Write a sequence for this structure.
């Protein structure tokens, strides 16, 4: 039986693994079906982590984390978790291959995923001109014109990244002001090949067998605009990944908010003894790497205290 099962391998999960193993737990496994790193690995620019002065991409930033965590005994199993349930004082971790393992405690750090924008043609052309990762797909649009949809930090940072690759970037936002950090907004406004399209939304993406060939934009005053471009990158928010906590009867293992976030206290404890949640999954998460890492460390310390009391 595991002392601790960590579900998810982003900054919260890795930090939890580091603090749990360094804190003395001997049998700790992190379940992550992909390589560890989390959503930040798709970011083109990481510049606000305290103590890391060098600006780098997300993959380079996260590369040392796994090595550091594994050094203290954290094990990584590249398996997908389907469900976490609890019977008496023991948690059962059901995996996608229909096997299961038992654990004395669990930290769920499954994070979040890019939210769909909801325009016509989004699903049809996803991966063929519609993308949520500029780092992954930006190269395919070298010296071409593309659009970015969104008004937060991620949207503006990715627009800046694409501006270095693409001939022109159209930044589309439904309001006339951005939610991003003022310094990022200023950089975008000074970038010569980024054109702002404000008070507007993407109504439709269209194309042919080769992929996207254009997008239709509708402004708040109901006027329209057609852009003949081969690609659009959407950054309109995140959906939490809470599926592993849903039980066979459709209810969740622990208390959740109306938005689907896990309700925790300041120590990342849920209302279920031995179950903790950290990172974007939990209520009121800041959605910042430094905060997710802190959550993971806090949860791990909570697990150590919980196990000592049992």
């Amino acid at each position: 039986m595991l002392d601790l099962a960590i579900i998810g391998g982003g900054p919260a999960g890795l930090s939890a693994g580091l603090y749990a193993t360094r804190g003395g737990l001997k049998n700790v496994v992190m379940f992550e079906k992909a390589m560890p790193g989390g959503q930040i690995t798709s970011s083109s620019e990481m510049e606000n982590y305290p103590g890391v002065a060098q600006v780098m991409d997300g993959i380079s930033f996260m590369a040392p984390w796994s090595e550091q965590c594994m050094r203290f005994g954290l094990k990584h199993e590249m398996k997908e978790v389907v469900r976490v349930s609890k019977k008496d004082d023991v948690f059962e971790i059901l995996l996608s291959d229909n096997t299961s393992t038992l654990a004395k405690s669990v930290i769920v750090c499954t994070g979040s995923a890019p939210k769909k924008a909801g325009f016509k043609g989004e699903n049809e052309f996803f991966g063929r001109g519609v993308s949520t990762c500029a780092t992954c797909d930006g190269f395919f649009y070298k010296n071409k014109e593309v659009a970015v949809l969104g008004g937060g930090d991620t949207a503006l940072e990715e627009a800046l990244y694409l501006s270095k690759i693409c001939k022109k970037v159209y930044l589309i936002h439904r309001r006339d002001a951005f939610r991003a950090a003022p310094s990022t907004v200023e950089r975008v406004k000074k970038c010569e090949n980024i054109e702002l399209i404000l008070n507007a939304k993407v109504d439709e993406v269209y194309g042919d067998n080769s992929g996207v060939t254009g997008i239709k934009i509708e402004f708040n005053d109901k006027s329209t605009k057609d852009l003949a471009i081969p690609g659009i990158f959407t950054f309109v928010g995140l959906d939490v990944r809470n599926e592993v906590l849903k039980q066979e009867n459709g209810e969740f293992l622990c208390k959740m908010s109306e938005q689907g976030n896990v309700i925790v206290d300041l120590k990342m404890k849920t209302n279920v003894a031995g179950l903790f949640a950290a990172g974007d999954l939990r209520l009121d998460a800041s959605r910042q790497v430094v905060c997710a890492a802190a959550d993971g460390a806090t949860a791990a310390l909570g697990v150590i205290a919980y196990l000592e009391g049992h």
Remarks:
- The chain has a mean pLDDT of 93.
- The chain has two domains: 4-114+238-308, 130-234.
- Residues 148 and 233 are 5 Å apart (CA to CA).
- Helices lie at 11-22, 58-70, 134-137, 153-163, 182-190, 289-308.
